[in-house]
Write a structure and sequence with these properties.
By secondary structure, this protein is of the alpha+beta class. It contains seven helices and ten strands. A hairpin with a 3-residue loop joins strand 5 and strand 6. It starts with a helix and ends in a 5-residue tail after the last strand.
Amino acid sequence: MQILDNALNEGRTTLTEYESKQVLASYGLPVTREELVNSPQDLLEAAGRIGYPLVIKGCSAEISHKTEKGLIRVDVRNDQEAAAAFDEISTSMNGASGGAILVQELIKGQRELVVRMIRDAQFGPCVMFGLGGIFTEILNDTVFRVAPLTAQDALDMMQGIKAGKILEEIRGMAAVNKSLLAKMLIAVGQIGTENERIKEIDINPVIISGGKPVAVDALVVLQTAGT
C-alpha cells in the first residue's frame, strides 16, 4: 500500500488522521467527508464543497492528542469562524512537521463506539469493539476477537459488551445498522491480516448517525522491521 510505503520511507511509525482514514476507506469503511488544506483560501473552498457546520483540526503525524493541544474546533458555522479557526490552529501547531489543516464534516450523534485492531505477539491481529469516546478507558466495556472475523463473530461482539442495548432503538434514536457495523469490524480485521506492517488501528470515536456508523477519528500505527 503506497501510503504505508511513503510513511515508512520517511521514517514515520504513524499515519496522519487523513492518511489513516484513506486506508480505512480503501477497505470500504465509512469515514467522514474531509479535505486537507494548507491555506485560508483552500480552507474556504473546501468548506464550500463540504458544507457547514464543520470540524477543523490540525493534522500531522507528530500530533496524536489533538484535543489536549487545542487543535480542534467543532461546530464551525461560517467563513469567519473557519478563518479564525485556521489561524488559531496553525499558530498552535507551531511548525509541526508535515502539518496541515483538516476540514471535516460535522457528524452528529449521541452514541460513540470504538473499533481497534491490535497485533498480538501470540495471536496476531485482534479486533476490539466497545463503547467509545471518553468512556473507552473509564468503563472499559470492550470485547476482542482474533482476526479474520466472520459475520457471526462480528454480531457476537456487538452482543458481548455490557452496554449492548445502546445499539438498539432507544429514546427516539434509530437502531444501529448492525450489518454495516459488522462489515466495519470484519474490514478492520482484514486490514490487519493483509498488512503486516500495520501494528495498530484505533478508530475512536465511531459515531452513530441516523443508525449508521461513521469513523470520525482514526490513527494507524506502523511497525518497522524487527519491531
